[in-house]
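Q: What would this complex look like in 3D?
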Amino acid sequence: MMHLACIPNLVGGHLGGWRHKDAFDRPVMNLEAFIEMSQIAERGKFDCVFLADGNGVRDMDRPALFAANHPSARPSFFEPTTLLSAVSMVTRHVGVVATATSTYDEPWMVARRFASMDHISKGRAGWNLVTASNAGDALNFGRSEHMGREDRYARAQEFYEVVAALWDSWADDAFPQDKASGQYLDPTRVQPIDHSGAHFTVKGPLNISRTPQGRPIVFMAGQSAPGMELAARYADALFGAGTTKQDCIDAYADIKGRMARYGRSPDTLKILPGVSVFTGRTAAEAEDLYLELQSLISPALGVHYLSKMLVHDLETLPLDGPLPFDDLAEETLGGSSLRRYIIDMARRDNLTIRETYQRTLPALGGPVFKGSPTQVADEMEDWWRSKAGDGFTIMAPVQPRGLSDFVDLVVPELQRRGIFRREYETTTLRGHLGLPDAPSRWHSEPEKAERGAA
Amino acid sequence: MMVLGFTGGALGGHLGGWRHRDSFPTTTMQLQCMVEMAQIAERGGLDMMFLADGNGVRQMDKPALFAANSPSDRPAVFEPVTLFAALAQHTSRIGLVATATTTYEEPFSIARKFASLDHLSGGRAGWNLVTTQYVEDAKNFGRDEHIGRVERYERAQESLDVVRALWNSWATDAFPQDKATGQYLDPARVRLTNHRGAHFAVKGPLNVARTPQGQPVVFMAGQSEAGKELAAYGGEGLFGTASSKAQAQKEYADIKGRMPKYGRPPDALKILPALSVFVGRTRAEADALYDELQGLIAPSLAVSYLSKLVGFDLTDAPLDGPMPASPGESIGGTAIGRSVLEMAAREGLSVRGTYERVLPSMGGNMVKGDPVEVADMMEDWYTGKACDGFMLSMPVQPRSLRDFVELVVPELQRRGLRPPEYRGASLRENMGLPIPADPFLA
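A: Here is my prediction, written as structure tokens for the whole assembly.
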């Protein structure tokens, strides 16, 4: 079965998405709109909704782009674990996946928020572990510079190990809560973690009992070599990015191939490349939507946007000339995987600056599936069968129209083909994703096995 | 108007509360218990539900006390801001006050999660600023030793300043979201925080729009000299621990008297001493509940609990001998511990006499009686300028909260001490606090 996540951001995935007549009128801090999106996703039997996040206001040095807002800027947004805790009160099945960074947060705090969310949602919580790629966020946490990638990933790995150990603090049966005897908890069924490493010293145990899923589900998104390695070692799911099917097939084989050395079966990591879906009842309707949205963006804004994505000013260059590839060759601190994808795409397809921004607007340079429901389902099935992914992270250009069109038009087609669930079969995100039970140090104890047998 | 909140621990406030037949059958990570209490309290028009919090598992070195669980240990509880985000969807009026520590959290993260909660709840969020009194929490954040009180309070004040500056990042009208012109936000209506101080450097702005009540309400609980000063400087609600009216009056006058030098009217801070309420339809019913609960606690467990509260070991002290004085001011010494010792000294209590007083209310003030007697006591303190209201602690949950709402609240309303219904949609309005001015409109 195919797995589907969606990004229910209210401004849509297209730079002009929020301005479309079918877009939410007031997306800023609009809880009701977000609940509507989550309920649409649940109606479509999505595995989970997923919220990207950052800890800073971006693009203030580019006032025109700042004022226009773009889908990954998020100048004002709910803190995601609080939002998804709220959303889990008005949904019953759909997984709720929030982002938190290992670079500026403490492992104790992250372990606790996500364990809390897993209890609140009754087993639907996921943590998207990021190392934060936006350099400016550092300035909100007392640092003058962003941490380099190697440091960030070394820290991320240790961070994950501490969080996972904290989630294992308590045995499943640690809280008898026996009114008659007065025994609330069993002191022999909890242990400190006593972690002491290069980046963190954490005694533990966590002050939350073992969660409904054993552990919340861990997502990652890094596409760099250290990111892929960390995912192969520890991630339960991966938000992939790739501009082409071949990119995704290569990345899929690469990451799954790295898992054996950590003693993991390839099946225990679900890779969900991001795709933007433009659909309608017909191919013409999808095309109209696409053109409408492209026309909402002036060249000046388009170039601003591309300049930001590439971390390089392009405003003074001819619109119909090539990108300055030589200047772009250097790695930038904080430059994301996306930056490299866009540059590679422009070089490969010999694009002008105008063509590059036009290709970047609808999906941040990621793949676009555009057409009738059958055409979109064809592409999804083809990618899935070609092992470009275990499913997809669906973005839509205009919300809520994009998601509801996908759910009403494409999902039934996938279901008809027998490649996507018709009903939820479980109540947990772990169950939806078909992941094995979470390991626990308490489960491997002989005394526990004896108890279970008795 | 008297301000009323309650402490939302599902265990109840008495050490034996969770074992009582009228308590929740199970409480560990039971969302439904929390929803039920929030809804009962909202039915009674209480201004806020409050959750104390810490970042550590306590008493692991005292297995008997650890296993019995005490109301202030919280070995397994929800992270309070995520919990309140969920409860906000099950309630519409009651304030939601969560604890976060300035000692181990970054001001940006604190500002963001409470701003988020304020939006999610339509203006009902409160932040209880603590500096963390529990020494062992340090070991979950890469420190071998707890930070000393002076440094904790300096850091707390700076953190509060940064958080408030972050909450002032955006003008109320900063997001036109104009589809026709393409202007989503107005860059002239946001500003950088640009804070550089002894403990924090934060550029800002916050990535959350100005919140429904302007800023979440800031609560504090510190009773030390530094704590009182910080409350006078920037607190809007203060949880107290006074165990007598005279003590409460003295603290009330002291703290309110410190406010003018910060340019604040005394009314801008609501002082809410803790109050444990044992109520029944009759006095006999209240007495019976009290006796039942006291009977659930063995002397050895009680002594262990008292030792924990005062911060030194009493196991070897004779049960019926005088309560020993503290061997010295400890770095993690708490307001509750000091209050208990003061009470014992003032009243010449034995160890047993002290723990009997401590079990029901952790040494804070307690009232026991029929609804009229309870209301009398509350009115007496309120009109006597001992407080602006109370932070209620309920011995057995949900029974005690329900009894309070059904029996005492109507009596307070009849006396005009409580409004017939919520006065507004936000926590600020219900507490009678002003909405902070939008600095962009000033």
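A: To summarize the key features: Chain B touches chain A through 81 residues (CB under 8 Å). The mean pLDDT of chain B is 94.
Q: Very helpful, thank you.
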